[in-house]
C-alpha cells in the first residue's frame, strides 16, 4: 500500500495532528474499535480532511508502524557510531529493537493489541526497508569485530535478528506483557545474547 502524498497548504502539520490523534486512539481504545469519525473529531477537522491525507484506518496504522520501525533503526544507527566495542554494539542494538517495541506495547492496556497489529503479516511487508537498514547496520558491526562467524556477516546478522523473534509480542517466551515485565524481558534477551555472542567469539 502506497502512502498518500498531500500538497494541501499546512499539510504536514495537519497530517502530524491526525497521526498523533490516531496513535492515542489506537492505544487507548484499540485499533479495531477506533473509527475515522472519532479521529476527525479529536483532531478538530472534518472526516473528509482525514481522507485527504490517508485512504483508510489501515493506512494510518501503516504509517505509525513505519515510524516505530524507523525509530528503532535510528537508535541502532546511533549505537553503531558510538565508541563501544563491536560486541557491545551488537548487544545494545538488539536490545534496543526488543525493548523499543516492548515499551510501545506497555503504554496502555491496548498497547499489546496495537503492537500485534503492527507485527501482523499484512503490515510487516511495509517494514522491509527498515529491516534491510537494520540488517546492514548489524552487518557493519559484525564486519568491524574479530568474530568467528557462521557464514557471511550478512547471514550472521540475519540469524541474530531471527534469534530475537521470541522476545517480541505476543511473547512466546515466559515473560508475558505487563508493566513489570521489562526488566525480566531485558534479562532474558541478555541471556540469549550472551549465548549467541559466546558462539561467535574467536578462540
Structure description:
There is one protein chain. The N terminus is likely disordered. The chain folds into two domains: 46 residues, Homeodomain-like (Arc Repressor Mutant, subunit A, Orthogonal Bundle), CATH 1.10.10.60; 144 residues, Orthogonal Bundle (Tetracycline Repressor, domain 2), CATH 1.10.357.10. By secondary structure, the protein is mainly alpha-helical. 68% of the residues lie in helices and 0% in strands. It has ten helices and no strands. Helix 5 packs across helix 6, helix 5 packs antiparallel against helix 8 and helix 5 runs antiparallel to helix 10. It is elongated and about 65 Å long. It starts with 10 loop residues before the first helix and ends with a helix. This is AcrR family transcriptional regulator. InterPro entries: DNA-bd_HTH_TetR-type_CS, Homeodomain-like_sf, HTH-type_TetR-like_transc_reg, HTH_TetR. One of its GO terms (biological process) is negative regulation of DNA-templated transcription.
Helix/strand layout:
Layout: H1 11-29, H2 36-43, H3 47-53, H4 57-80, H5 86-105, H6 111-118, H7 121-124, H8 128-144, H9 153-163, H10 181-200
Helix pairs in contact: 1-2, 2-3, 4-5, 4-8, 5-6, 5-8, 5-10, 8-9
Q: Can you tell me the CATH architecture of the largest domain?
A: Orthogonal Bundle
> CATH superfamily of the largest domain, please?
Tetracycline Repressor, domain 2
Average per-residue pLDDT, rounded, comes to 82
Cα Rg: 19 Å
Look up the CATH topology of the largest domain.
Answer: Tetracycline Repressor, domain 2
Q: What is the number of strand segments?
A: 0
Order of helices and strands: HHHHHHHHHH
Strand content: under 5%
CATH class of the largest domain: Mainly Alpha
Helix content range of the residues, please?
Answer: 55-70%
Structural class: mainly alpha
Separation of termini?
48 Å
Largest β sheet strand count, sense and barrel closure: none
